[in-house]
Amino acid sequence: MSKFRVDPGLVLEKEIDLKAIEAIKMIQWHPITLKYWALGGSSGWLGTNTTSITRCPDGVGEFQHYVNGSIYYHPSIGAYEVHGLIRARWSSLGWERSFLGYPKTDETRTPDGIGRYNHFQGGSIYWSPSTGAWEVHGAIRGKYSSLGWERSFLGYPLTNESTCPDGVGRYNHFQGGSIYWSPSTGAHEVHGLIRSHWASLGWERSFLGYPISDELVVFGGAGRISNFQHGSIYWSSTAGVKVLRERVRVHVKILETPTTFTINEQFAAMQEVYAVAGIRVDCASTENLNLPSLNDVDVGGCTMGSVTSEQTTLFGNRNFVGTNDVVVYYVRSTVPGYNGCAAHPSGRPGCVVVRSASRWTLGHEFGHVLGIHHVSDNNRLMTGGGTFNITNPPPDLTTGEGTTMRNSNLTIPL
Ligand SMILES: [Zn+2]
To answer: For 281-298, what is the mean pLDDT?
Structure first.
C-alpha cells in the first residue's frame, strides 16, 4: 500500500477556506497526485486517469496512466511525466525495467526550440518532428552531451543505440553524423565526407576498424582528420579525402620561433602534401632549446651523409625521441644560408628549418629525410628551385615519391 494520500478528485473544485488549505498542507499527498495537479489535473493536457496509482512491475516505483500520458514515481527520484512518442519509445524498450529506468525530468523543450526530450536514470530519449524519438545512453550519450546535444553538428538521433555488424561495438546515427563506441576505443564521432568514406570502406569491419578520435582540425587548419584503429581518413579542400595508412612521428625542437609561417601552418602544409602519399604527420612533442651558439648553425655543404660538428651537436638533442622518430630543429639561420637542410648524423634522422622558411620547407626537408631527391619542377614539393617559388600550391608528390617515402623505415604502418 502507498503511504501517500491520493487525489480524492474533488478538492480543487471546491471553495476552500484558509483553514482547509492549511489542513491540506498537512496532508502528505502522493507525489504522483501533486505532479498531476501541477500539470492541471483532470482539466490539464494529461486528461483523466485511466488507471489508479499502481505499483510498477519492478516493485520499486509507482505509476498512473492518463488519457494522454503517464506519471512515474521513484522514491529517490520523484514523479515525472512522460507522454507522446517519447513515452511510446520508452514503452517499446520496457518502461522502468529497461536500461533507461525511471524518468528524471518531465518532457522538456530542447534548447534549440525544435524538439523535446526526457532524461531517464540510464539515458535520454530525444524527439524532433522530422526525426522521431530515439534513445541515447552510456558513453555515446556522454559524447553527444560533450559536443552540445541537438545543437551540435550531430543534431537529433536517427536510431537507438544499436549493435555494430561486427558484434563488438555500438553506435547511434544522428542527422549530422554518427557516434561509434567499442570497449577498447571508447566513443567518438565521425561525420561528413570522412564518415562517408569510412562507410564506403565498410564501417568498423573495414581495415580501419573503429574511430579512436573525433574529427580533428589538422594543425594549422588546412584539413580535417579522423583517426581510426588502423589508419586515418584525411580531408582538405585541395587534397579531397585520403586514407592514411602510415605515419611519421615528428618532434619539434625550437631554438628560434618561426617568423614567416607558424609551425602549425608548416605542419598543415606538410600534412596536406603527405596525405597524397597516404602518410600521416604526427607532431609527437615540442621542446624549446636554449642553444644560442647553434642558432646560426654551420651546415657546411648540406650534403646528405656529411655533417659538421655543429650539426652533430645540434642533432644530439633528442629528448623524447624514439627509434624511427624524426626531429626538426628550428634555428635563426644556416651557414651558408638556406631555408633548411636535411643532412643529419647517422641514426639521428631529422632536419634544420630556419625561422624565415616557406610554408613548404618542412615537408620538403622531411622528403629528403624519407629518401626523395630534388627535381627541376616548381609544381613539385621536391623542386630544387626553392620552395618559395612553388607555382601550384599545394605542390605535387608523384606516386613514385610516395612509394619511396612509405618504404622508409621512418614511416610506420598504422
Ligand atoms: Zn632540398
So the answer is: 97
